[in-house]
Specification:
heterodimer, A: mainly alpha, two-stranded antiparallel sheet, globular, B: alpha+beta, 3-stranded mixed beta sheet, 10 helices
C-alpha cells in the first residue's frame, strides 16, 4: 500500500512546540518534562515565560528520554545524567565528523 | 507461527527468577540499546531482547508463553489445543501471526480494551526510520521510498504485522543527523486518538568528492607545485556545477579556500560554504623534461622549507648519522 507523499517538518531550531505538545510527542508527562528542565537537559526558549515554548529539536531529546526511561527503567535523576552524557557524545561525534571532513584524503603516487 | 526461545535470547534458564531475568535484560540492553550502542546490528538485537523481556517479566504473559511448550527457535508450531480458550480468543488463527504480537495482544486485550471494541481513545504508534540519501539529493530535496514492517490491527482487533510503503518528501536543507517529523504518517489512532507520526533520521551517503560537516562541504583540491607557487584559476566542481576558483600565488598545502554559499542549503533559505583544501601533489612519474626542470629549480633556489627546525630544536645535536625513511613507514596514521 503506497500513500501520497507526506510533507515533512524539520526538528530543528526554527520550529517550536509547547510543553503539552512536547509531552504528547515524547510520551513523558508534564511533571517529568518540568523535572528534566530543572536538571538542565531540556531548555525552554524562555524559562521565565509562563507558557513554555521549546525549540522543535528538543522533541528528539524528549523522545530519546522516554525510550531510555522505559527501556532501562531509569529514575529521572539517572535519566538526566544519561542524557547529558549522550549530549556530550553527540557533540564530540559532530566535532570528530567535522575534523574528518577537513582531513585531506591521502593522495598516493599514481593518484594525482 | 514461528517459535522464539525467549529464555535463550536473554541467556537465562527457563526456571530463572524475576531478578535474574531483569539483570540479564539490563546487561544486554546496555550492550545493544540503539541509543547507547555503536553496534550496527544493535537495534535488531535490542528488539529481540526487549520482546523477550516484555513477555518474561510479566507473570501472566510468561505463564501463557510457557504453556506454548518448548520448540526449536524458528520452528513452526501450533499452541496446545486449549491454549486459545485459556489465554486468548477461542478462534485465534496462528498461521500468520507473530509470537510477540500474539503475546502483546493478550496485554492489549486486558489493558487497552480498545483494540477489541472498547472505547478508550489511544494515539497511533510512532514509527522511526533512517533514510540514507545522496548528497546531491540533500542539495535539491528528494522523494524517498521507505518500507516498514508495522503492527496493525485487523477487523477483529488482532495484531498483525503488515508491510507499508511510504513516499516521503525530504525538502532541501537536509544534512547528516537531522530529523524530520511527518505528522500523522505513523500508525492509525484508536477511537478518535490521533494518528502516530513518522520520524525520519537523515543519513548522508558518502560522496566521492565532497565531505559534509553540518551544511559545509569540504573538497580536496590537488595542486601541482607550480600551481601552488604561481597561483592559478581552476575549474572546481560544486553541487550546482563547475565554478572557477582563483588560487592565490604561494598557496600552502592545507589552506582552505572558501567558496561562500556553495555548501548544502539550510532549511531556511541560507546555505553552508564549500571549502577547497589545497593539497600539493607531484607527478606520479617525472618525464625527462620535468626532471630536468625540477633539478634546475633545486639548484637555483635558496628556499629552505625547514629553516625553523634549527630554531625550534634546542638539543638537536644528537647522534648524527643519516637514516632513510621507508615509504609509508613515517607519517600520521589514519
Amino acid at each position: 500500500m503506497a500513500t501520497a507523499p507526506a510533507e515533512a517538518a524539520w526538528l530543528n531550531e526554527e520550529g517550536w512546540v509547547s510543553l503539552d505538545e512536547l509531552a504528547a510527542l515524547s510520551g513523558l508527562t508534564d511533571s517529568a518534562l518540568r523535572e528534566l528542565v530543572d536538571y538542565g537537559v531540556l531548555q525552554p526558549v524562555d524559562a521565565a515565560d509562563a507558557q513554555w515554548k521549546f525549540s522543535a529539536r528538543w522533541v528528539v531529546v524528549a523522545r530519546t528520554a522516554c525510550r531510555l526511561r522505559n527501556d532501562f527503567e531509569l529514575d529521572l535523576n539517572a535519566l538526566a545524567l544519561t542524557l547529558s552524557f549522550l549530549d556530550r557524545i553527540r557533540d564530540l561525534e559532530a566535532q570528530l565528523r567535522s575534523v574528518h571532513a577537513q582531513l585531506p584524503r591521502r593522495y598516493s603516487r599514481g593518484r594525482s | 507461527m514461528k517459535y522464539k526461545d525467549y529464555y535463550e535470547i536473554l541467556g537465562v534458564p527457563s526456571d530463572a527468577g524475576e531478578d535474574t531475568i531483569k539483570k540479564a535484560y539490563r546487561k544486554l540492553a546496555h550492550k545493544y540499546h540503539p541509543d547507547v550502542s555503536k553496534d550496527p546490528a544493535g537495534e535488531e538485537k535490542f528488539k529481540e531482547i526487549a520482546e523477550a523481556y516484555a513477555t518474561l517479566k510479566d507473570a501472566d504473559k510468561r505463564a501463557a508463553y510457557d504453556r506454548l511448550g518448548s520448540h526449536s527457535p524458528g520452528q513452526d508450531f501450533q499452541p496446545p489445543p486449549d491454549w486459545g480458550t485459556k489465554f486468548g480468543d477461542q478462534d485465534l488463527r496462528f498461521e500468520d501471526i507473530d509470537l510477540a504480537d500474539l503475546l502483546a495482544g493478550l496485554a492489549g486485550g486486558r489493558q487497552r480494551g480498545g483494540a477489541k471494541g472498547g472505547t478508550i481513545s489511544m494515539p497511533g504508534e510512532d514509527y522511526e526510520v533512517t533514510a540514507h540519501i545522496a548528497l546531491e539529493d540533500a542539495y535539491t530535496g528528494t522523494l524517498v521510498d521507505l518500507n516498514l514492517s508495522v503492527p496493525d490491527y485487523d477487523g477483529n482487533g488482532r495484531l498483525h504485522r503488515v508491510a507499508r510503503a511510504f513516499k516521503a518528501r525530504i525538502p532541501k536543507g537536509a544534512t547528516h543527523g537531522q530529523r524530520l517529523r511527518l505528522r500523522g504518517k505513523g500508525g492509525k489512532g484508536f477511537h478518535g486518538g490521533r494518528d502516530g507520526d513518522l520520524y525520519l533520521n537523515i543519513e548522508l551517503l558518502p560522496h566521492p568528492l565532497f565531505r559534509p560537516s553540518g551544511h559545509d562541504l569540504y573538497l580536496d583540491l590537488p595542486l601541482a607545485p607550480w600551481e601552488a607557487a604561481l597561483g592559478a584559476t581552476l575549474a572546481v566542481p560544486t553541487l550546482a556545477g563547475t565554478v572557477h576558483l582563483k588560487v592565490p600565488a604561494g598557496t600552502l598545502a592545507g589552506s582552505k579556500l572558501r567558496l561562500a554559499g556553495r555548501g548544502l542549503p539550510t532549511p531556511h533559505g541560507k546555505a553552508g560554504d564549500l571549502f577547497a583544501i589545497a593539497q600539493i601533489v607531484v607527478p606520479p612519474a617525472l618525464s625527462e623534461a620535468e626532471r630536468e626542470l625540477f633539478q634546475k629549480l633545486a639548484a637555483g633556489s635558496t628556499f629552505d622549507p625547514r629553516s625553523h627546525f634549527n630554531a625550534e630544536v634546542k638539543h638537536g645535536d644528537c647522534a648524527g648519522g643519516s637514516c632513510m625513511a621507508e615509504r609509508g613507514g613515517v607519517g600520521i596514521a589514519r
